Amino acid sequence: MFEHIQPYAGDPIFALVDAFHADARPQKVNLSIGIYFDEQGRLPVLPSVQQAEARILAAGGAKPYLPMEGDAACRAEVAKLLLGGGHPAITEGRVATIQTVGSSGGLKVGADFLKTWLPEAGVWVSDPTWDNHRSMFEGSGFRVETYPYYDAATGGVRFDAMLDTLRGLPARSIVLLHACCHNPTGVDLSPAQWDALIPVLRERQLLPYLDLAYQGFGDGIDEDAYAVRALAAAGLTYFVANSFSKSMSVYGERCGALSAVCATKAEADLVLGQLRFTVRRIYSSPGIHAAKIVAHVLGDADLRALWQAELAAMRERIAAMRVALHARLTTLAPGRDFGYFLSQRGMFSYTGLSAAQVDQLREQHAVYLIRSGRICVAGLNTGNVDRTAEAMAAVLRG
Ligand code: LMR
After folding, report:
1. Tell me, which fold does domain 12-45+304-397 have in CATH?
2. A single GO BP annotation from the record (predicted)?
3. Nearest ligand 1 atom, CA 33
């Protein structure tokens, strides 16, 4: 029956995590997967989330099925977090938000929905992008192409080339954009670049699909929602998949959402109905614990303030590690420009290290990063940053 099945080569990110855990060397450093670790190298449990969970249990902790679209309070809080409370798109009923199984669940539900309702569309992702974007959309039956993005020569964005490519796309093409903290490069569009991109999206009648997995890790919760709000202000119709995995440190709870911002309430209602049907066909309904955490943390003024402070502390610790790595590498490898560690945003930096250099780092120095040269800066701490810099400098010396 199954003899013909091809072996699965494994996921490049998760396989590396497995290899890291299997590594017996005590000095090993995990800069692979996009997970925030604290100064002690532990996965933090945020007090805001702990307090929310205590309240959920105190309220009885019953676990009925949620509706297909998820918990109403959670969905309302998500829309407000994305667009800002009282936004006209929300008050006019033009936002269709569903709670999803992480933002990956949201991306997948959105991809299946779009394959049904825009079956001829192609999907365009940044070059490079998160490994799983291509797999997900191809898995939903799409043809996936790339638009120019990262400029290895300057460490910036090939913005003119990006716009040229987007100008040449057929109407109704789907354009996947990282709203902030680009994964894997850490190189974001500036507000001015978003402002220049949006008219192209509108004139070409393209459908922006934002991936917002790292809100709060760039410059702040509202600052990182710039693209979401600018698209709404320009009156575009678009999708946004957002995640609380990193921002609330609730990776395994699978807390995420998918929102469609539409031209009219009637359209949003149609979209919501079909998103519900899409969910029903995949996993029926999302998890209740995830919904309650999000609804409590965002919906209670005290918990929300606590969470915002916790998120700011995570963001600031990452920024401090960027400064420390940059300083140490600049001393160890003078003559090289490591300024990209300071200008890139969020958890990731693109080091420009080759796959062979990455292998050398792992094999000889027990420093784990993705073979594209992406490092997760959030895996650094004051105890391992010097060793990491020394290992990188040794590999760069060849
Ligand atoms: C990453 O890029 O490392 C994270 O988004 C985790 C994942 O699922 O790949």
Report:
1. Aspartate Aminotransferase, domain 1 (3.90.1150)
2. L-phenylalanine biosynthetic process from chorismate via phenylpyruvate
3. 3
